[in-house]
Amino acid sequence: MDQKNNSLGNKRRSSVIRYAPLLIWICVIFFLSSSQGSMSHTSLFIRPILEFLFPSTSEATLLIYHGYIRKCAHFAVYFVLGVLAVRAFRTRRISLRVAAALLVVALVASADEFNQSFEVSRTGSAWDVLLDCFGGSVGICAARLFTIVNRRAVRDEK
Length: 158
Hints:
Number of helices: 5
Largest sheet: none
Distance between the termini: 36 Å
Number of domains: 1
Strand content: under 5%
Shape: elongated
């Protein structure tokens, strides 16, 4: 009986270890989707860095740079989401794992932009959903590639 309880405890622990980072990261995304992630808030720390790096740059150019940095952040945040999503799902069929991870990325990206459409300081954009999905897809591919390379390295050591 103790062995059965221990096995059940290990399964629960394994599920928490796999899903907790994904759920926490989704919460981070929705926090950033609030007014806290608006351009006026991110400019508080991005603007001084840009002014330091490019002291003679015009105001308009700094705004363009800031916008590019924000779009790169979209890609990076959803790259991480893709990695965590493909890591969380455990199925024997890789295609199901990848499909589930892509679905999570697309749903979170859509919900994120929908949520932003209700924020006065934010705007929801279908283009951002596409950028988010692209970042998540690249993250999923990177995670799969890492898994394949890691398995081959382990197999070659034997």
